[in-house]
Amino acid sequence: MLDEALKEEIQGAYRQVLEGLDLTPRYGQRLMIAEIARTLSGIEADETGRRVSNEHVCVLEAGTGTGKTLAYLLAALPVAKARGKRLVVSTATVALQEQVLHQDLPSLKQHSGLHFDYALAKGRGRYLCVAKLDQALDGVESNPTLSLFEQALESRDGDDFHELIQEMAEAYGNGRWEGDRDSWPVSIDDSSWRQLTTDHRQCTNRRCGHFGACAFFRARRHLDQADIIVTNHDLVLADLSLGGGLVLPSPKDCIYIFDEGHHLPDKALEHFYHRFGVNAALRWLRTLKKSLTELNTALGSQATLARLLAGFPDLIAAIEPRLGEAYSLGHQLAELPNGAGDDTRHHRFAMGRAPQPLREMAAALVVPFAELSRNLESMADILRESLDPDKATGLSREQAEPWLPLVALLQGRALEANALWQAMAADDAQGEPPQARWLTFDQQGGDAELTFSASPVSAAETLARYLWGSCYGAVITSATLTALGRFERLQERAGLANRYRYQCLPSPFDYSKAVLSVPYEAVDPSDREGHERAIVEFVTALGDKEAALVLFSSRAQLRAVEKALPRAQQERVLAQDRLPKRELIDRHRKRIDAGESSVIFGLASFAEGIDLPGDYLTHVVVTRLPFAVPDDPVGATLAEWIESRGGNPFMRISVPDASIKLVQACGRLIRKESDQGRITLLDRRVLTRRYGRALLDSLPPFRREIDGQPQA
Question: Cα separations (Å) of 567 from 570, 571, 572, 592?
């Protein structure tokens, strides 16, 4: 129940913000504030502050122009502070994260009368490791382990790399740079950055001689004081996968706001995907084997380490031939000769079931990789303890410190290998969706590679247990959460219970200012050549003052249409795959500012997150209904499982997902209240197929026009 004091605090802050920013109150925004405040204040907790009620999540679809960010901050922050919880605002894109951090929060702090601190949380891998920078400045010779592994795994960049680290050391030392990759003034390539950062296994935390100057822990100390933490979905999920509370506060102490929440299920799946490249593993195992003499020389004076190192030859000997057999078996199962082909090929196992020979092979590899990862973990623990002056391990800090990062690196690889082979050998739960399991054949660095992969087809159970089940409260919001006007698809994918609160909030926009047209030129895309001709004819006929976005479902068709256009039309086209996104948008805006025509050709990524208000976009052309073909191994396995249970994967997955994507694509047109224009669908299936009516009815209430005739 929202008590009066809290209610007055929220309402008072809202009034102050409206006055301070000269904003007009919006009905949908007020509803959103009320719904969030009602949900979060209604959470019941015991005397320790732990949640005991189960209606602690609200799911709110709120279109562009609602003022979502202001609404959820105003509603959730006072409740979080009153309950002694931290507010974690998570986004899917850097653009929204920067907007919240650099625009919305400073504005709220200035005008609301609310008192709070906020901070940005990023993963350890976004920060400089001062110890690694120090080693890089001293050169390879100062760290004998670099000659064993890092030269095999990384490529150094000579003078350019040396110049970079010198500049970084100076900038970090005098405080001009805070040590995070994203604030460095120029882009840093991945191979250079990997040599300058670390992960949770390699990091020695307080035992590190550079702990006091550590960029990550400096930022972490700021987090500990913040009432609001801004982060991204990936970091929230990574923290949960490590048990929660390692980078972010413990979930039980958090109220999460998931903005752009429709991305969360896909992001979650990525965190539970395991893969194993056979030849890549053989390379690091051989490097380890060759280095055992030097490892023994450096660390063998410690009895436990000597014993562990003595066991590595037998372990490697048990693994290597089996990996060779796995490589051959994979080619046999896919009916390919070893090392065949230069292109990438997938071989998916039906219903996710690995054949019995592969399951037996996987079971045989689980044990040695488990033992290898345990032994490497034991070594890493001893090396960490050796950095503590109060622990007597038989090794000095000088002996242990150079080796810990690389032992931890290998432990991570062994753990991932063990997880993959466990997933490949496991039995799927009866009645539950199976894991997808598949093989990938491709070329990596000029060599043939076979990669074994396994992934859940749904993250619903994991999210239900570890996120929704463990957090104090949560708000999921986005402009597109419903599919065909309902929340069922999101519930199914994100593990959201029926008892949670769901609401679609009214839009402030007048959608009758836009026309949704299915013109004569629209044809069924099954006639590929006819459909391509229709697109060419339609784009050619666009007016001289058009500010248009033409969305394609395939790069091949985009290029074919661009090539087929008359030269005069080609000159006004800006194609996504020929220019960086930012440069393309800048050129488009400059053309419109100059009174010229400009037509953007874009793929699926341009159907979401492109913001071109007013005259910068007056016409959106959707060339084809955005059906995703479930031909990726994960999607195909899920579709196969649904079909095996008497379901229709097209109607259950493809149509709802296409509905969401179509709403997103059409949403590029109306970005503020004064916007107007036209949306054209060049796919006649929206009129001829039984799902077409449902797709049209899920769109905002645009005025409709079919074959040139207005519709009632």
Answer: 5, 6, 9, 20
